TrEMBL record:
TPR repeats lie at residues 180-213, 282-315. The keyword Magnesium does not apply. The lineage of its organism: Bacteria, Pseudomonadati, Pseudomonadota, Alphaproteobacteria, Sphingomonadales. This is Sulfotransferase. It comes from the Bacteria. It comes from Sphingobium nicotianae.
Length: 685
């Protein structure tokens, strides 16, 4: 009978304690009253004492709770709930050392519970113990990697079940809003969907919650690079390299940010330091080669690329990087080595496609230098066919976009839109097709005392892409409606955004700077709307020579139209039509540089170019090859020597194979350098 009564009393007490616990969040005052009532009957009862302290903290009285919790924790040192409450209460009263002690005890007992580690990291930072805090965050991340709920969400994401994964993570964050691992994972889901804004918000939150979360910060740097937020990317990359867990990948990430910022020298220092520690790293040698090439140190670049293929003979990109040094010729031994590499890759042909097409492009260049035009064309053709299967380019859709822009930005429409945009005269846009001589124009202008050369800047294309997304997402019915809706204030803001975002690439106080993104020909109307005082230079080359040169050039990114003759011909025609339409809308607004004329009469063409820009003539522009600025394009080595005429008609060696290209180009071949008379019809076809 006594046992039954004791059991009943215990059950009744447990029920009362459970009811008090359920009141804590919404009725903490009542919970405190009832807990104290139990303690009056059973002084020092640990569960009731814990509930009373929890209620006090929720009522905003942590100082009253702390001494009671300290006594409780000494008598019950192995109860995680008591240690957790003590840590949070000590934190709220500003007693970080006591909070740290409680959390260190807690994490020793429960190392697999991530929340304890993350709170410990937070308290350690308050106490100025930064490295220990970083390590605590890393321990929290490690614990999170074993969390079943997070593992299930990660598996669902990796299997493409994004909705299922998002639902799991959203539910978790409603319950645990400060979970950095869940924030990072949900950010990756949004990134996979293409929602960069939300991805950045979530990943930035993960890093804010756990500054020592290296994987999240690494991901954040890559997101910032994708959105061209380079100064922020560098700041986070520099934080990563200070991680107590030394990782060479952090150094490599910082180097990649520096390259994007144009700081080739500092990137070179990083690569050379890592190679001094361990030389047998082909990717590092290749990266070093890219930097040295940009800096104009050709012999050193050649050595670096050759080191890369020595350590990894099948490394197609390194072979192409060698071949792509236009002034370097690959010999018979190189050809044999590349053919052997191709043969060895045959069993892995589906997984090593990038190496294979790079090797074909490299062999195309090697046989071209060896005057074996048949073998050269065959390898270029194989490389292009393979590469075309790996990129997306919808020629018809692109033509429709060009037609929409060309038919919108007419003279009357531009007049109707009136004044607006940012009045800054700083930018000089050099537009056209790749391999059109635009790097030569850039190098000539960058040799002028008032003009700074930068690189192919993505900012205008990013602004244009963001505007187009407003149409794609249904905010506007079409491109015309979206552009028409831009107020003068909108256009001023967009122009100022361009100036501000490109400022990071300017390292001198020269008043003018060059943006040599060739694809900006697609956005000349937008440039007029938001930067009406910017100069626009159209670098144009013979259509067959330009297109064939682009076809045999593998581009590191973009230019998806360049791997098929039909796509190339149509793209060139679209370009000619749009630029002709803009010339008609705003005569004289664009200055055209014809490559063949620049080669034939450099001094005269340079004088006309500088007159268009309102700049005085300077002899340095004619000695442009003496300019030691960094050049990142495929023509980097060619512009480090005087103009040569050999490239003008080089394509004629391969004329026997170019009928598909000339057919696709149609009348632009015979009318060059003028547009054909029927160009307007292309825009309505």
């Amino acid at each position: 009978m006594e046992n039954r009564s004791a059991a009943t009393a215990t059950s009744t007490l447990q029920g009362a304690l459970a009811r008090i616990a359920s009141m804590l969040d919404e009725h903490a005052d009542e919970a405190l009253t009832q807990a104290e009532a139990i303690l009056a009957r059973a002084p020092g009862l640990p569960p009731a004492e814990l509930l009373a302290c929890q209620a006090l903290r929720r009522l905003g009285k942590p100082k009253a709770a702390l001494p009671r919790l300290s006594i409780l924790a000494r008598s019950q040192p192995r109860v995680p709930a008591i240690l957790w409450e003590l840590a949070q209460t000590a934190s709220e009263t500003g007693n970080s050392e006591q909070a740290v002690a409680a959390l260190e005890n807690l994490t020793r007992q429960q190392p697999a519970v991530a929340t304890g580690w993350f709170l410990l990291a937070k308290e350690l930072r308050k106490a100025g113990r930064e490295e220990e805090a970083w390590r605590a965050d890393l321990s929290g991340v490690h614990a999170s990697s074993r969390d079943r709920e997070l593992l299930e969400a990660a598996v669902a994401m990796n299997e493409g079940q994004l909705d299922d994964s998002e639902a799991k993570l959203t539910a978790r964050l409603e319950r645990l809003p400060d979970d950095p691992a869940a924030c990072r994972l949900l950010g990756e889901i949004h990134w996979r969907r293409g929602d960069m804004t939300e991805a950045l918000t979530l990943v930035e939150r993960a890093v804010h919650l756990a500054p020592g979360y290296d994987l999240a910060r690494d991901f954040l740097v890559r997101l910032l690079l994708q959105t061209n937020r380079l100064p922020e990317a560098l700041e986070h990359a520099e934080t990563l390299v200070r991680s107590p867990l030394r990782n060479s990948s952090h150094d490599l990430l910082k180097a990649s940010v520096l390259v994007r910022l144009g700081d080739q020298e500092q990137a070179r220092t990083i690569y050379e330091r890592l190679l001094a520690q361990r030389a047998d790293q082909p990717q590092l040698w290749q990266n070093l080669g890219h930097v040295l090439k940009t800096l104009g140190r050709q012999a050193d670049a050649v050595h670096a690329y050759r080191q890369a293929v020595t350590y990894q003979p099948t490394m197609g990109e390194a072979w192409w990087s060698l071949a792509n040094l236009k002034t370097v010729k690959l010999g018979a031994e190189d050809i044999a080595a590349m053919e052997q590499a191709l043969h060895s890759l045959e069993p892995e042909s589906k997984t090593r496609q990038e190496d294979i097409f790079h090797l074909h492009f490299s062999l195309g260049k090697a046989f071209e230098d060896a005057k074996d035009d048949d073998a050269s064309f065959r390898h270029y053709d194989q490389g292009n066919r393979l590469r075309r299967t790996m990129v997306t380019h919808d020629a018809a859709s692109f033509s429709a976009e060009v037609a929409a822009a060309a038919t919108l930005f007419t003279g009357p429409f531009i007049a109707q839109m009136g004044e607006g945009g940012c009045p800054a005269p700083d930018p000089i846009f050099v537009v056209g097709l790749p391999r059109s001589g635009s790097t030569l124009v850039e190098q000539i202008l960058a040799s002028h005392s008032q003009v700074e050369g930068t690189m192919e800047l993505p900012e205008m294309m990013m602004i244009a892409g963001r505007l187009q997304s407003r149409v794609d997402e249904g905010e506007f019915p079409d491109f015309r409606a979206m552009i028409t809706a831009l107020t003068p204030a909108d256009r001023l803001r967009l122009g100022e955004e361009y100036i501000e975002r490109t400022r990071v690439h300017r390292v001198t106080d020269k008043p003018l700077f060059i943006d040599k993104m060739p694809n900006n020909w697609q956005h000349v109307g937008l440039i007029q709307m938001i930067l009406p005082n910017a100069r626009i230079i159209d670098a144009r080359r013979h259509p067959v020579g330009c297109c064939y040169s682009a076809w045999k050039q593998h581009f590191a990114r973009g230019q998806a139209f360049s791997y098929d003759f039909a796509d190339l011909g149509r793209y060139y025609r679209d370009y000619v039509a749009q630029m002709a339409a803009f010339d008609e809308a705003m005569p004289g607004r664009v200055h055209r540089v014809i490559y063949e004329q620049m080669v034939a009469d450099t001094a005269g063409e340079v004088s006309r170019l500088l007159d268009y820009l309102g700049l005085p003539f300077e002899e340095a522009c004619l000695a442009f090859w003496q300019n030691d600025r960094a050049v990142r394009t495929a023509s980097s080595e060619q512009v480090r020597q005087p103009i040569f005429t050999g490239g003008v008609d080089h394509w004629k060696r391969f004329e026997a194979w170019l009928a598909p290209l000339t057919d696709a180009l149609g009348p632009v071949v015979d009318s060059y350098p003028q547009p054909p008379s029927d160009w307007r019809g292309w825009l309505s076809a």
